């Protein structure tokens, strides 16, 4: 068996990805085979020019076969252009399809993946793996597959000229086989180590750039440079080792081939002197021997060349096989009619933990009625965000269930379900586009809705003073805006969705007092048809909500009003 069972499975998956391009691949193969067939004629034509033309001083023969050779070259080049057209399409589209599949899968992965992997590591891994897998569509790979035809034609040519010299050529096969097998095994092991070094570096790099503000404040740039040198040193060393191994493979191939050529010249000259073959026949034999030796080495080098592809393909498919948010239930999902949703939320015996020894939420039983305004408070790490993430289906309860209007949320189409909820997160994010684009993202463009949402959130007060108004660019994550302006745009985005459930996670943390009081009044006055959950410890909003939920040590305690909460906590 040329490859292990694991490697064969990976190759089958790669070939499956190539199925949509089977017509293009077929045309490329036809072009390569036709080109190989034409090239097989060149040694025979050279033999005729040498033996019947030059050695016999027959000028007509020289002209005839030279023009014939030139005509074949023109045909061969035309075939090459056609091959390049389809090959470039295949190479580009295959790489695009891998990137597209990875990106689509990335958007569907569970939140836990992004909590444990930074963007630099994700980009580094996907970029390297796609680049390496795409090498299977390199021109060299197709040529390797087509070399079997050159070998057959070359062997026929060799046998027709001299069978004794043919044995010498075939002698190269076992020598190259064992050499390449040893080097390929070593390279595969080294490349796995190289991938791991790159993964560690990408992870460290992403973590460093994300914390650039802290690095500047703490003055630890020299420490980070030291860490960079240490991590890059491993990558540089492995690059040198891999390059040396590649060169050693080339040298071993060159030495074996030159040794065989040396023997062929010596033995060939002896046979020519004995009148066994003509001079033209000897040169044709040497050309045919290259046709056989080169492809044999290329075929044997498949394992060596794939030593990059297989580890990357394995990691890529492991990534593609990661469980997504929507993977567990794809059939018989409930499709919702947003106009009929009332917004009643019910938690029944819900338990959740990130680790077995640490219970975050324990046996939560809770009902939130349609149109209620609920405040959620609790110490840092008490489980407030976990409660919201469970409701948003970023996580699944370990036990129990969450219902919306009496329907288990896990049985609802995820896209439909999340379209019912508007969220302003504490760690909000603005996209690098205009204010208008950020407010209306994911919605049909409706200027009236955008302006209404901006006025309700308080964003209109600063938008009207900007030169481009709603067309103004916000920069990456709102870098061109102040903290309060960013927050108002995020609130406007949530309002523009007109969702049945509104979740505000410290949504007014950067609001000025006047704007915050206005928004709190608005929430309790104009949102009677929506269920609103507010994470906040500010008294102004706590006095206006219908109920207060206190998350503490995995449990949730309910208070009907702010005074009851103060009494229970000994504040009054």
TrEMBL record:
<dbReference type="InterPro" id="IPR039421">
    <property type="entry name" value="Type_1_exporter"/>
</dbReference>
<dbReference type="GO" id="GO:0005524">
    <property type="term" value="F:ATP binding"/>
</dbReference>
<dbReference type="InterPro" id="IPR017871">
    <property type="entry name" value="ABC_transporter-like_CS"/>
</dbReference>
<keyword id="KW-0813">Transport</keyword>
<keyword id="KW-0812">Transmembrane</keyword>
<protein>
    <recommendedName>
        <fullName>ABC transporter</fullName>
    </recommendedName>
</protein>
<keyword id="KW-0067">ATP-binding</keyword>
<dbReference type="Pfam" id="PF00005">
    <property type="entry name" value="ABC_tran"/>
</dbReference>
<dbReference type="InterPro" id="IPR027417">
    <property type="entry name" value="P-loop_NTPase"/>
</dbReference>
<keyword id="KW-1133">Transmembrane helix</keyword>
<feature type="transmembrane region" description="Helical">
    <location>
        <begin position="21"/>
        <end position="45"/>
    </location>
</feature>
<dbReference type="InterPro" id="IPR011527">
    <property type="entry name" value="ABC1_TM_dom"/>
</dbReference>
<dbReference type="InterPro" id="IPR003593">
    <property type="entry name" value="AAA+_ATPase"/>
</dbReference>
<dbReference type="InterPro" id="IPR003439">
    <property type="entry name" value="ABC_transporter-like_ATP-bd"/>
</dbReference>
<dbReference type="GO" id="GO:0015421">
    <property type="term" value="F:ABC-type oligopeptide transporter activity"/>
</dbReference>
<dbReference type="InterPro" id="IPR036640">
    <property type="entry name" value="ABC1_TM_sf"/>
</dbReference>
<dbReference type="GO" id="GO:0016887">
    <property type="term" value="F:ATP hydrolysis activity"/>
</dbReference>
<feature type="transmembrane region" description="Helical">
    <location>
        <begin position="255"/>
        <end position="273"/>
    </location>
</feature>
<keyword id="KW-0547">Nucleotide-binding</keyword>
<keyword id="KW-1003">Cell membrane</keyword>
<feature type="domain" description="ABC transmembrane type-1">
    <location>
        <begin position="27"/>
        <end position="308"/>
    </location>
</feature>
<dbReference type="Pfam" id="PF00664">
    <property type="entry name" value="ABC_membrane"/>
</dbReference>
<dbReference type="GO" id="GO:0005886">
    <property type="term" value="C:plasma membrane"/>
</dbReference>
<feature type="domain" description="ABC transporter">
    <location>
        <begin position="345"/>
        <end position="571"/>
    </location>
</feature>
<keyword id="KW-0472">Membrane</keyword>
<feature type="transmembrane region" description="Helical">
    <location>
        <begin position="57"/>
        <end position="75"/>
    </location>
</feature>
<feature type="transmembrane region" description="Helical">
    <location>
        <begin position="279"/>
        <end position="304"/>
    </location>
</feature>
């Amino acid at each position: 068996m040329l490859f292990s069972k694991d490697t064969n499975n990976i190759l089958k998956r790669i070939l499956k990805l190539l199925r949509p391009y089977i017509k293009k691949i077929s045309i490329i193969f036809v072009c390569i085979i036709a080109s190989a067939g034409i090239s097989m004629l060149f040694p025979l034509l050279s033999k005729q020019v040498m033996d019947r033309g030059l050695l016999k001083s027959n000028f007509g023969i020289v002209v005839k076969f030279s023009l014939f050779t030139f005509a074949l070259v023109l045909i061969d080049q035309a075939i090459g252009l056609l091959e390049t057209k389809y090959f470039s399409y295949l190479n580009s589209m295959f790489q695009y399809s891998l990137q597209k599949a990875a990106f689509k899968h990335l958007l569907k992965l569970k939140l836990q993946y992004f909590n444990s992997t930074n963007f630099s590591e994700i980009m580094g891994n996907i970029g390297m793996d796609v680049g390496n897998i795409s090498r299977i569509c390199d021109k060299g790979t197709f040529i390797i597959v087509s070399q079997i035809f050159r070998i057959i034609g070359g062997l026929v040519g060799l046998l027709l000229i001299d069978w004794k010299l043919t044995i010498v050529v075939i002698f190269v096969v076992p020598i190259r086989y064992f050499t390449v097998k040893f080097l390929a095994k070593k390279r595969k092991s080294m490349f796995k180590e190289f991938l791991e070094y790159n993964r560690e570096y990408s992870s460290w790099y992403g973590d460093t750039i994300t914390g650039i503000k802290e690095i500047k404040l703490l003055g630890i740039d020299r420490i980070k440079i030291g860490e960079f040198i240490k991590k890059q040193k491993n990558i540089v060393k492995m690059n040198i080792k891999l390059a040396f191994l590649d060169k050693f493979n080339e040298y071993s191939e060159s030495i074996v081939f030159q040794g065989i050529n040396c023997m062929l010249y010596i033995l060939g000259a002896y046979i020519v002197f004995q009148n066994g073959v003509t001079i033209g026949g000897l040169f044709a034999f040497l050309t045919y021997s290259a046709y056989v030796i080169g492809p044999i080495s290329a075929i044997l080098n498949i394992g060596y060349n794939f030593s990059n592809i297989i580890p990357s393909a394995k990691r890529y498919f492991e990534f593609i096989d990661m469980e997504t948010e929507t993977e567990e239930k794809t059939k018989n999902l409930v499709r919702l009619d947003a106009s009929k949703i009332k917004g009643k939320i019910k938690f029944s015996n819900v338990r959740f933990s990130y680790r077995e020894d640490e219970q975050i939420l324990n046996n939560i039983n809770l009902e939130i009625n349609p149109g209620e305004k609920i405040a959620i408070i609790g110490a840092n790490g008490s489980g407030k965000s976990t409660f919201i993430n469970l409701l948003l289906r970023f996580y699944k309860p370990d036990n129990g269930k969450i219902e919306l209007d009496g329907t288990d949320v896990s049985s609802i189409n995820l896209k439909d379900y999340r379209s019912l909820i508007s969220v302003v997160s504490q760690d909000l994010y603005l996209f690098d586009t205009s204010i208008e684009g950020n407010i209306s993202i994911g919605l049909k463009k409706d200027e009236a809705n955008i302006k209404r949402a901006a006025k309700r959130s308080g964003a209109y007060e600063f938008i009207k003073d900007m030169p481009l108004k709603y067309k103004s660019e916000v920069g990456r994550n709102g870098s061109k805006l102040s903290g309060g302006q960013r927050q108002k745009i995020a609130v406007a985005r949530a309002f523009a969705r007109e969702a049945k459930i509104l979740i505000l996670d410290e949504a007014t943390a950067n609001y000025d007092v006047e704007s915050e009081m206005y928004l709190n009044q608005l929430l309790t006055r104009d949102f009677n048809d929506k269920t609103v959950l507010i994470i906040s410890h500010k008294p102004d909003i706590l006095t206006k909500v219908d109920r207060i939920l206190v998350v503490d040590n995995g449990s949730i305690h309910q208070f009907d009003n702010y005074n009851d909460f103060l009494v229970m906590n000994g504040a009054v």
